[in-house]
Fold this protein.
Amino acid sequence: MTKEKILVTAALPYANGPIHLGHLSGAYLPADIYVRYQRLKGSDVIFICGSDEHGVPITITADKEHVKPQEIIDRYHSQNKAAFEKFGMSFDNYSRTSLPIHHETGKDFFLKYYSMGILNEKKSMQFFDNKARMFLPDRYVEGTCPNCGYEEARSDECENCGALYQPNELKNPKSKITGETPVLKETSHWYFPLGKYQKRLEEYVNAMNEKFGWKENVLQYCRGWFKDGLEDRAVTRDLDWGIKVPIDSAEGKVLYVWFEAVLGYISSAKELSQKLNRKNLWKEYWHDEKTKYVAFIGKDNVVFHCIIFPAMLMAWNDGSSERYVLPQNVPANEFLNFEGKKFSKSRNWGIDVADFLNIFPGDPLRYTLAANLPETRDTDFYWKEFQLRNNSELADILGNFINRTLTFVHKNFDAKIPPKGELEKIDSEMLNLISEYPSKISELFETYKIRDGVLEIMNLARAGNKYFNDSEPWKTLKSDKEKCATTLHVCLQAIYTLAELISPVLPFSSEKIFKMLNAEKTGWNECAKENLKTGHELRQPEIIFPKIEDEIIEKQMENLNNNETALEKPQEENVSIDDFMKIKLKVAEVIHAEKLEKSEKLLKLKVKLDDGERQVIAGIAKYYAPEEIVGKKIVMVANLKPAKLMGQESNGMILAVEDENNKLNVLSVGNSVKVGTRVR
């Protein structure tokens, strides 16, 4: 019977900085555990990844260091590839989007769409630096936000208040290249008609969810985009770093990185085919409609992998007999924070994977991250928790069970597997428990509940320790050696099963366990059988998980605190009660709401106050449909100076809170509260 082909991709990391622990938890570790598990099951699986090496952030990093972009990508591609390898990532191919094979793939897709008449050419106004003689992408323009006055806002969006606006609304614009004031100049770009595919995309997402059970966070992101309505997206931009647009009328333009980066999964598979000298290997996965394609990503990449990339593949498939498979599932994780705060390169908050692995081995980190994966909500990495996981779980539970069993057998049974005698109830129950575990863990891993699977494997180690303690082999050695031998026989079978079940999570430690058992893996479906025969000779046991001492962790905490202190901003001044009372918080009723044209985030509201009606622009469009907000009595700042957002006047600000799923919830009051009531 032909095996099901499984294609697994992990989001391409950007090659303008080192990989940190948050990246591992988001996409890479869960993907690696899943792939290693599938290989143990005997599945036909390939695991694809690579560096994303185009786009403005690369050029900005290069400009800051006064080097060429190629130097930046060469540095970080090599560093990140080495860090992944040391961490135990088992990619079949780790490619680069700067390779010719990727450039060819990107151009093929553009030309395919161009020849099919899918792309639309549109003109727009964009900042142009006369001194540098180039159009400026948004990250290359800095100015004062027309809404909040933040002085480091981009040309079309303010990172401080989230406001979106037209480039001509930005105050005091400056080119980050020359410091000159740029001018607005007309340019033209090609756009992909994403909205044309909305109905098909909604049907695709619903069908995949119904059949394969997508994660709720992924579905919510998709539904939010669908609710807003999909719009055309530019596939080209004025830049000199990237894949050149392959038509004569597009001189000085490259393919937008959002468009070509996802094609890196295809070009990486093509490169793997070349390396293995199997020309059409990549087609066996990408063009087989029965292929199970799973895309592991972080939540910030949902729109690209669940909406944009599938739409691109749909467009290709409409005009080709060689059809690409779409993702069957996209198990996106939330974010991992560091000691209660977001990873921040600018504030030197966090730790890179390479630096971490220079101090500690990879498996304790893999286990700590896997046992705390942000699968349904953001989670945190804490140094103290890392120490506790290593010492109290890996060392005291798993390591202790293995060491005490092997040491006992070496000392009392000549380092050979003791014979199994007549089974008592306690022995049969333990063997039955062992036999259930491969299918139990499979059920969790197959549904991308990696964290639960890891914790269940540790529960088997706990059960092994309890069985050892309850059987008291140190007593039966003297009173009933046959019973003692049976206990150790069962314990060794449990260790064998554990060694295989834990190997996707702890690949290096698993190899050490099998070496001590003097045995080889049998495969996932066979590992719970009695694979160690009576008389089989064991090798010398060793400590697999050394404990981490307090002073080592304290040193890391001290280094972290020193980094934070050095970059600490002056504490903000407290406001007086008189200052606070100047802010008028009032209850208002939303009487009309509509989406703001050309904005994905903003709703235009008409609200009723005690002094009349007024217009407010609110950044809640991703969380509320217009009809959902109408009729609500909300709390708003009633005496805020009017501001313009996207050319529309906003006369006030409504209040909202962010929940644990990063969703904004507008503060509202009961219907009995009168419009205009002051909130104190």
In short: The domain at 120-191 is CATH 2.170.220.10 (Methionyl-trna Synthetase; domain 2). The CA atoms of residues 102 and 292 lie 23 Å apart.
